[in-house]
Structure formats: C-alpha cells, structure tokens
Amino acid sequence: MAVPRNHVLTTQRQALHVTQEGFCELFGRTAHMLGMNLGVSVRSIARWEAGEILTCPLPDYRRVLEALFNLPIEELGFTLPDPNHNAHANNFTAYGHQLMELDQPWTHDGAIDAIVEVSEKAPLDRRNFTVLSGAALSAPVLAWMCDPQSFQPALNGRRVTMPMVRRIEQGTKFLRDLDSETGSGDLLEMTNTHLRFVTSLLKHGSYTEPVGHTLFSAVAELCRVAGWVCFDSNRHAAAQSYWLAGLRATHTVENRAFGTHIMGYLSEQAFCAGNAQDALQLAQAAQASGKGVTTYRDAAVTGMRLAWAQALSGEKTYANMLNRASALFERGSPADETTHAYWMDEAALACETGRCFLEANQPQQAAELLRQGLSFFSPSYLREHAYWLSVLATAHLRQREVEQACAVASQALNLLTGQVNSPRIVNHLHDFQQELTPYDVPCVREFTERARQLL
To answer: Cα dist. 129→66, 125, 382 in Å?
Structure first.
C-alpha cells in the first residue's frame, strides 16, 4: 500500500487507536466540548489522509484538530495559510514577549474586545496541552451547573440577571476546585469555553450597573483561573494573555484589590521563568497598588511573592519580607470573604516560605518548612501535594540527602500516575532528574528508570 501524502495525520489518528469512523465521532465530541456544533465525514478524513486536501481547514476545524491531537495544525501535514493574511495566528511566543494585540482602550468596550480576543486566541498556545477523559467527564457537569439554554434570552440581547451571574461564579469555582484536586492538564478547553460563553453575555446581553459590575468581576476571576490553568500547563504565553485581559476587567470595574492579585500572578510567572527583574518590579507594583485596599491575607501573598523575587535577585532583604508576610497572615482571618487568597492557609504559608529559602540557597530551612507544610495539606489537594513533594525532593538533594530525595520524588511521581495531570510538576521532576546526574547510586538509577517510563 502506498504511503498517503499526509502520513502525519494518519499516524496521529492511529496513535489514538481509532478508525476513520471512530475519528469522526471523536472529532464531534471534541468540537462539542469546545462549544461548537461541528462534524466531519469519513470521506473528508479519507481525503485529508490521502493528501487530496492539504490546505489548512477552516479556523473552527483547525481548532478542533489542534485540540484533539495536541499539535499545531502545521504539524498535522497541512499547508499553512499566508502568514501575512492573519498575523495574529502565530503571535504566541516565548515568555516575556507581547503576544496579544492588547492595545484596546481602557474602557468598557476595550475590556470586552480584549477578553474576546484572548478567549479566541489563547488556546493556540497548546503544544503541551492534553485532552483526556477528565475534561470530557467534567464538561457536562459545568454545562449542567451553568445551563446555557436558560441564558439564551440574555445572549440574544435581553436582560442579564444577578442569579445568572451567581451561577457563572459557581461554574468558575467548580473549575478552580477541580484544578486544585487534579491539575490543569484536562481543563484548558473547558475553562476557555466557559469564558467564551460568559463573554457572549458581556457583549450581547443588557444589564444594570450593579449586575455589570459583578459580571465583569466574574470575568476577571475566570481570566485569572484560565491563566493559572495555562501556567500549570506550561503555556506561559497564554497565561500572560489571560491575566492581562483579567487586569483590564478589574480596571473596568475599578477593583484595584483584584488587579493587585492578578499582578501577583504575573510576578510569580516571572519568578518561575527566572526573570528576577520583572518578578521584582511586578511584585513591588502589586504591593504599592494594594496598599489600603487588600485584606491582610492578600497582602501576605503579595509580600511572599516580593520575598521570592528578592531572593531570586540575591537581595538579603527577603528574610525581612518573609517575616512581614507571616505577620500579615496571622492578622488575617480565614473567614474573610473578600480575600482573593482563598488558598493561603498554614500549609501553603509554610511551603511558600520554604520555596523562598530554597531559592536563597538555604535547603535545610527549606526542607523543614516544606515538611511542616505538607503535613497540614488537605488530602483533596492532590496537585499541590505533588508539587510541594517535588520541591522538597530538591531541597533534600541540595543537602546531598540523595536517598531521601529520591524517596520523596517517588511519592510525587506516584501522584502523577493516574491522579494528577500537571505538566508544571512533570517539568519540575525533569529538572530534579538533571540535578541527580552526578550521583551514580542504585536509588538514583531506580528513580531515573521509573521516571523515564512514567513521564
């Protein structure tokens, strides 16, 4: 049999263990999960694979194919359109570059336009994104919670009500909690579909000023969640875009406290990328912006991020900032409903402080705090548990406690096997493996082989 011209598409389909007929069903389900009513025929699949159609499919079909295979369209055997025809299509670049045309005016309409743009383009930054059964299972749950049909009148230009907005907030919290429990790997498309739906209400519905204020705040939180999902999936360009769009939404409703919170995430992203200068400037800006408007717990998180940036920059003042963040945390109340730092508790505080000491090359203090924090963590927060285990493993290794480091890293590896889908943790364990290279002992060889098989 002659090899089809578009053998890449055939190989990718066969890797999914589906026939052309089965692929048609999979295509339809993926399209539905993306909020589109699209289908494809067996004849079309056959023509694609035979090389009879090598030009790029229409944009919506490209979105579905890219989501389904976790590959950009040009790596599926299709010919890209003229890059000058749609300059925005390839705007996603490495961290630190401006990737979206976010130059709309800082107005009500400008914020809507920015959110529309990011909801349509951010999913293109998907090279590491994997659509697994978890998302397919959770998508109908989210749809049930929000019930898009009951929103149809508002989508057609009629009134958006406060109960509608509250249901949107419930859907966002569902996504947020699911991310904490299982990781981000399955949630990106579902989160973006939710954002596109909410954006339609902003653009086409009518609402009173109080409802509009709450709706924009809900969109800001949804952009924050979407940004975090991308960040945890190592899609830093898309994460940055979502957070910048969320910043616009907070500006529209003059919610400086929430804007400060989003700036903190941008600082954390720069910290994790090793960009000390950006991390420091963003953390300082967040701290200055949050004065007088944030809760004690929010201020504690901002202070913690500033301490990370100071440690990364080699500044000794990080220890004073850690003490200040801890004092702010103690003054706060877990019952404070206005806090955006809902996740900051005793366990998170100890682990975040430990990470700062690790960055400051004090692994012993880091390990003590990380062990303390891990002992407090809720059993349901599997992703956070796995992440901090990987950080603790690094702290042990930097004290030359090689066997203990491998044992702790193996615990993180266990959580990544069937329970947690977090590319960020996978990357962290790959970095840990690189640090193991000088040690040629049985526990290292055993961990390296197991990690190679599972990761």
So the answer is: 10, 8, 19
Tokens read off for 430? 């790959």
Give CA–CA dist 66/293, Å, rounded. 42
pLDDT per residue as tens digits for the range 204-240: 888 899 998 999 999 999 999 999 999 998 888 889 9
Domain ranges of the chain: 7-80, 101-251, 255-344, 360-455
443 token code pair? 């526990």
User: Residue by residue, what is the 3-state secondary structure of 139-157?
Assistant: HHHHHHHHCHHHHHHHHCC
Rounded to 5°, angle at Cα 16 from 12 and 17: 115
Nearest by Cα to 180 from 45, 59, 342, 24: 342
Which H or E run contains 315? Answer: none
pLDDT in tens, 46-86: 777 776 544 556 777 788 888 888 888 877 877 665 444 33
Cα distances (angstroms) measured from residue 407 to each of 194, 380, 443: 40, 22, 8
Instruction: Classify residue 216 by burial, with Cβ atoms within 10 Å: 0-12, 13-18, 19+.
Output: buried
Using CB atoms within 10 Å of the CB of residue 238, give its burial: 0 to 12 exposed, 13 to 18 middle, 19+ buried.
Answer: buried
Residues contacting 214, CB < 8 A, separation 6+: 162, 165
The answer to whether 178 and 187 have CB atoms below 8 angstroms apart is yes
- What are the two backbone dihedrals, phi and then psi, of residue 79, each rounded to the nearest 5 degrees? -85, 125
pTM, rounded to two decimals: 0.69
Q: What's the 3-state SS for 329-377?
A: HHHCCCCCCCCCCCCCCHHHHHHHHHHHHHHCCCHHHHHHHHHHHHHHC
Structure tokens at 175: 């996504």
